Amino acid sequence: MVEKSIIRLMAYLFFIHSTMTIIIGYIPVFYQGQGLTGSQVGLLMAIGPIATIVAQPFWGYMSDKYKSIKRMIILALFGLFLSTAAFLIVDSFYGYMILMFVLYVFVSPTTALGDSLAQQTAIEKKVTFGSIRMWGSLGFAITSLLTGYLLTWIGVNYIMYPMMFMAIIALIIAFGVKDVPQTNKPVTIVDALRLSTNRTLMLFLLFVVFISSTHRANDTYLGLYIVELGGPEAMIGWAWFIGVVAEAAIFATSAYWFKRWSPLTFIILAGGLYTIRWALMGLISNPWFILPLQVTHGLTFGVLYLAAFQFVNHLIPKHLQATGHVLFITIVFGVSGIIGSLVGGYIIELTSMNTLYSLLAISAFVGVVCLALFQKGMAGTKNRFNVREIE
């Protein structure tokens, strides 16, 4: 029987990722409805990752310093609700710029720290990380689908109301989440900064960015691509639903398939599938063809995230787990988000959505080649990893 502490954590992940799906999947469409250009939307969506880069290391460091992920999550959720409410009184491009920064300062740690707590809880309770994390994916999937229909009915201009609703529920649940006992070793800012001197970690993150930036570009522009091809807003929800349900299936079954190869091998395979996925997306002219392609989201992002999280986990000292996990998420999704949103916006304005996806395929392929060389260089060294189940 699943412990109550794990059930509460699963519920928290469900609702906080529900909030995130609205931000990622529908805010670009909201901005387009406000009359903003493609490059303006790209700039606004790039501000979020910039705020993530600034904020997430701080939240991770504070969690390790004060030995409590829970308290940091609760503080961030209060800020998330207030910044979301502020969208109701702002209607200018520069106002949106400020609010996007503030919003991501608070929303980015809610998912990153949640995943870190899930990883630590999985180790303590001897369950798979994927079995806990899958509930975040299910929240993302179900909410993306329901929100698509809701906004088709009430209009995308009212996007902030479902965001505020999900944030409030996540906050209520967060009060019942339990921290994982931490080591007594004190954490200083010098300890946190030393992570950036880990050459293996930094090289790995650099190469993964070639792949993850393509994922973040798709996150930003998938909704716009569907609308441009003539699809209804409800189709955006279906696209996210199909993709993230496939992702949840990968997480749920990780205990069975993850034993077969090393994490790096799985990451390289995911990158290869990303290359094929984006190449096919670039050839599409009918929006309905996007839906079956979304099934590959599980085999791309799901595998990449689980394997990369596990790989990085081996490189992080125990007393810096939250800091290291958040550093990983900051670079892979923060830096990648800036690249994907900004460069993607300009590519769309200069060429087309189809060209964007073709270039994403090239970027993912470059990442695969770099990681394959990286793995070859690690073979036979002390950094070589033994295959083990995610716990």
Give an overview of the whole structure:
The protein has 391 residues and is an all-alpha fold. It has a single domain (4-378), classed as MFS general substrate transporter like domains (Growth Hormone, Chain: A, Up-down Bundle). The chain is built from 15 helices and no strands. The protein has helices at 4-33, 38-65, 69-86, 93-125, 129-154, 160-174, 189-194, 199-228, 233-252, 254-257, 263-281, 290-293, 297-313, 321-350, 353-378. Helix 1 (4-33) packs parallel to helix 5 (129-154), helix 5 runs antiparallel to helix 9 and helix 11 (263-281) packs antiparallel against helix 15 (353-378). It is globular, with a radius of gyration of 20 Å. Residues 7-357 form the Major facilitator superfamily associated domain. Keywords: Cell inner membrane, Cell membrane, Membrane, Transmembrane, Transmembrane helix, Transport.
What descriptors fit this protein?
single chain, 391 residues, mainly alpha, Growth Hormone, Chain: A, disordered C terminus
CATH superfamily, by name, is MFS general substrate transporter like domains
The topology string of helices and strands comes to: HHHHHHHHHHHHHHH
Largest sheet: none
Low-confidence stretches: 383-391
Number of E strands: 0
Could you say what the CATH architecture is? Up-down Bundle
Helical/strand content category = mainly alpha
CATH topology: Growth Hormone, Chain: A
Portion in beta strands: under 5%
How much is the radius of gyration in Å?
A: 20 Å
Helix content, binned percent? over 70%
Distance between the termini: 17 Å
Protein name: MFS transporter
Subcellular location: Cell inner membrane
GO molecular function: lactose binding; lactose:proton symporter activity
Pfam families: MFS_1_like (PF12832)
